[in-house]
Amino acid sequence: MLKLGYKASAEQFGPRELLDFSCLAEEVGFDSIFVSDHFQPWKHTDGHAPSALVWLGALGARTRRAVIGTSVLTPTFRYHPSVVAQAFGTLGSMFPGRVVLGVGTGESLNEVPSSGIKWPGAKERRDRLREAIRLINKLWTEDRVSFEGQFYRTESATIYDKPKDKVPIWVAASGPLAAQMAGQVAEGFICTSGKAPALYSESLVPKVEEGAAKAGRASDTIERMIEVKVSFDSDATRAKEDTRHWAALALSPEEKMGVEDPVEMERLADALPLDRAASRWIVSSDPEEQIAKIRPYVELGFRHLVFHAPGPDQPRFLKLYAEEVLPRLRRAFG
Fold first, then answer.
1. Farthest CA pair distance, the chain
2. I want to staple 34 with a disulfide (CB 3.0 to 4.6 A). Which of 70, 71, 140, 197 is the partner?
3. Whole-angstrom distance between the N-terminal and C-terminal Cα of the chain?
4. CATH number, domain at 180?
5. Are 5 and 69 in contact (CB under 8 A)?
6. Which residues contact 237 (CB under 8 A, 6 or more apart)?
């Protein structure tokens, strides 16, 4: 069954208004609400970075049916995995069947300024994430856990409020090795839209399936979620202008490599022309165009679509999208 979610832009809005937007999303028919867990935003001016762990507790209490979770949290640097296990054990106990722990290998923008660490290479970040997932699952299923891994240790640790229903862990990936890990060890896989089509069809999706096969798992049991970046408005000019706030997403990995200061990230993003700032987004005023451009992701097997809108008027987007696009998506793809 197709699931349609809302991405709460924690880097763009403060926690109170973000909570109001997310409650409205459930009210108008979105199935899930996912939030990032950044220590710093991409943009310094008018930026925000509320704590996802705190905010999700409020969201769960204010909503009734929507699935809620992180997209994504990094359980390897700012947080010890045991802290994440305790926090999501509590959330899973309070809101059973509604909580997802989405995790990733992290970004230096968030981890270095908050902890002063030396940012490690991609292999170490993947190894840390794999070990963190193993430890979190162990803490959710066992008591008195004494664990000695390559990166993390616990001594007779017990999570006393374990979720009765396991909180699923979904792994985010932008490259093949992390995608393969998702297939091996996670209940779900997360990625984002707007990149070269071959990345999804030739690299990410096949690697999830390859990882599942290596682990002896059925790949169709792994949830496939994609954050779809959409700028939809009845005014096409407004839809395009709205993408300026998120121009940083259009920076290449090389352009933002090692940038750990939101002020500098903002400077780089502001220098981009509007056409490039809008390049990661499905920008249109036509709901049928939205369906046509979302279709390739659904045909690749993504059945959980979480929509991230860049504009400042989120209630306007939520109501328009719920009225004009969500019903068409459900009719087109079930």
1. 59
2. 71
3. 6
4. 3.20.20.30
5. no
6. none
Can you spell out the DSSP letters for 200-249?
IIIIIHHHHHHHHHHTT--GGGSEEEEEEEEEE-SSHHHHHHGGGGGGGG
Query: What's the rounded Cα separation, in Å, for the pair 229 and 235?
Result: 17
> What b-and-e string marks burial along 158-171, b requiring 16 or more CB atoms within 10 Å of the CB?
ebeebbeeebbbbb
Chain centre to alpha carbon of residue 213: 25
d(CA 178, CA 174): 7
Tell me, yes or no, whether 107 lies in a domain: yes
CA 332 to chain centre: 25
What does the alpha-carbon distance between residue 186 and residue 171 come to, in Å, rounded to a whole number? 6
Q: Is 27 noted as a catalytic residue in this protein?
A: no
Look up the domain containing 141 and give its range: 3-233+286-333
CA-to-CA distance for 305 and 187, rounded, in angstroms? 16
Residues forming a β-bridge with 145: 157
61 assigned to some structural domain: yes
Dist. CA 16–CA 159, nearest whole Å: 30
- Asked if the structure places residue 270 within a domain, the reply is no
Task: Say how many domains are in the chain.
Answer: 1
Catalytic residue among 27, 44, 48, 107: 107
Q: What's the pLDDT score for residue 257?
A: 77
Place of tokens 């920008």: 283
Rounded Cα distance between 222 and 136, Å, is 19
Q: Are strands 145-148 and 153-157 parallel, antiparallel or unpaired?
A: antiparallel
Residue 287's H or E segment, with its range, is helix 287-299
107 has catalytic annotation: yes
Q: Residue 256: pLDDT band by 50, 70, 90 thresholds?
A: confident
- Helix count and strand count (H, E) for the chain: 15, 11
**Which of 84-93, 147-156, 272-281, 310-319 is predicted least confidently?**
272-281
Is residue 3 within 8 A of residue 304, CB to CB? The reply is yes
Q: ∠100-104-105 over CA atoms, to 5°?
A: 155
Could you tell me if residue 271 is inside a domain?
Answer: no
